[in-house]
Amino acid sequence: MSSRVGVAIVGASGYAARELFRILLNHPGVAITAATSRQDEAPRVDALHPSLARRIDLVCEPFDADRIAGKADFALLALPHTASMAAVPPLRERGVKVIDLSADYRLADAQVYADWYGHAHTDARGLDEAVYGLPELFRPRIPGASLIANPGCYSSTSILALAPLIAEDLIERSGIIVDAKSGVSGGGRAPKPSFHFPECNENFSAYGVGRHRHTPEIDQVLTAVAGGKGDPVETIFTPHLVPMDRGILATVYAQPKRTAVEHDLIELYRSFYASSPFVRVVSHLPATKDSSFTNFCDITVRVVRGKILVLACLDNLVKGAAGVAVQNLNLMLGHPEETALL
Ligand SMILES: NC(=O)C1=CN([C@@H]2O[C@H](COP(=O)(O)OP(=O)(O)OC[C@H]3O[C@@H](n4cnc5c(N)ncnc54)[C@H](OP(=O)(O)O)[C@@H]3O)[C@@H](O)[C@H]2O)C=CC1
Ligand SMILES: CC(=O)N[C@@H](CCC(=O)OP(=O)(O)O)C(=O)O
User: Fold this and answer.
1) DSSP 8-class letter at 285
2) Is-contact 74 43, C-beta < 8 A?
3) What distance in Å separates the CA atoms of residue 324 and residue 326, rounded to the nearest whole number?
4) pLDDT band for position 229 (50/70/90)?
5) What are the residue boundaries of the Semialdehyde dehydrogenase NAD-binding domain, all occurrences included (predicted)?
6) Which of 91, 100, 131, 266 could, after both became Cys, cross-link 96 (CB 3.0–4.6 A)?
7) The pTM is what?
8) pLDDT one-digit tens code per residue, 262-306
9) 316 lines ligand 1 (CB under 6 A)
10) How far apart are CA 76 and CA 99, in angstroms?
């Protein structure tokens, strides 16, 4: 036990936290030494998440940076945005490395954050130092980071779908259409009217059209993938809510700069992701159930009437949240990226 690294899970009662527990309880190099919740009665983790009964014997405590620093080297924050940026500075001041699952450290520019999230950013230093935790694109930067901004679930799907085309400068950068669908757990465990069963069951609707907060995140990262050369990437990102528990499928439409050949594109994707164990470039059309409860993102490419279509899917709670957080933790700890994730 002593050779294990102590990890705290902050925001323990939520869905992303449940996945963190589920995955990390199988990790040979990690001990979950603390869990926090605002709930009054110091709930046991397995009372919050009965699926974890007999797997974990841990009581939640209120958030206290000193206590966490006394027990853990890493904190994985599964808090809503704005709550994270209040918790991150005191943890980092005490030497705790942080992987933040919220959106608070994903956008490099505080003004862009304020514009899309409607709140001023209060941790300029953290924002400056955070590394965007999408290992497939930024793997070399992750081991040395002290603060990781874990990507959004729609963002990961869309970025992984588009990165090879942008990196190779094969498509026009404006007007890229990302038509994405998510299961309801993407909205978290806290009840909201649109997620109420009679509202979302047997229903299918778009939301956030033209103003979803993952738009600037997708554009920012893909513009970085382009190497800062040329025009910025501008996507038209439209999310939809699908009445299923989990999973995201994005269908991306892009205008090629020259004639596109499907077979060559599939080969490009295979070579681009050859060193990325969690991207499966497939020839069939991916379906959410194929990646459910896994850390895989499945991607394929088609050419239809001269346009490039990329279809990508992943599990929003795993590759879209807790799984990629553990991928990042593995890289920071020097473990194989796949540890506890296969
Ligand atoms: N769901 C998903 O698919 C994905 C989620 N994310 C991000 O991960 C984070 C967690 O998401 P998810 O687990 O779905 O969310 P949940 O709503 O399920 O859980 C968040 C937890 O944070 C705690 N919390 C809520 N509000 C506050 C607050 N104001 N201050 C402190 N703690 C608070 C609550 O725990 P308690 O009441 O016990 O204190 C709650 O259970 C979010 O930032 C989300 O955007 C990222 C990618 C995908
Ligand atoms: C279905 C649903 O509501 N999904 C969430 C996205 C969840 C996620 O990845 O985003 P953050 O980490 O940025 O919150 C939404 O559209 O806001």
Assistant:
1) P
2) no
3) 5
4) confident
5) 6-145
6) 91
7) 0.98
8) 999 999 999 999 999 999 999 999 999 999 999 999 999 999 999
9) yes
10) 5
43 contact partners, CB below 8 Å, separation of at least 6: 13, 37, 59, 60
CATH number assigned to the domain covering 5-129: 3.40.50.720
Overall fold of domain 154-315: Dihydrodipicolinate Reductase; domain 2 (3.30.360)
DSSP state of 187: G
Of the residues 21, 38, 156, 327, which should be mutated to test ligand 1's pocket, given the most ligand atoms within 8 Å of the CB? 38
Phi, psi (5° rounding) for residue 295?
-100, 20
Residue type, 155: S
User: Is 153 one of the annotated active-site residues of the chain?
Assistant: yes
Burial of 270 (0-12, 13-18, 19+ CB in 10 A): middle
| Cβ–ligand 1 contact at 80 (below 6 Å) | yes
Asked if the model's pLDDT at residue 86 lies above 50, the reply is yes
Task: Catalytic residue, from 60, 153, 200, 313: name it.
Answer: 153
Å from CA of 108 to ligand 1 middle: 22
| Helical segments of 244-315, H only | 262-272, 288-291
Q: How far is the CA of 152 from the centre of ligand 2 (A)?
A: 7
Is 117 strand, coil or helix? helix
Q: Specify the DSSP class assigned to residue 319.
A: I
| Strand order across the 97-100 sheet | 30-36, 5-10, 74-77, 97-100, 147-149, 131-132
Is the shortest distance between the CB of 78 and ligand 1 below 6 Å?
Answer: yes
Assign 1 a pLDDT band (cuts: 50, 70, 90): very low
> What residue spans define the domains of the chain?
5-129, 154-315
CA–CA dist 182, 41 (Å, integer):
33
184 alpha carbon, closest ligand: 2
Closest atom of ligand 1 to 152 CA is: 47
Three-state DSSP state, 212: coil
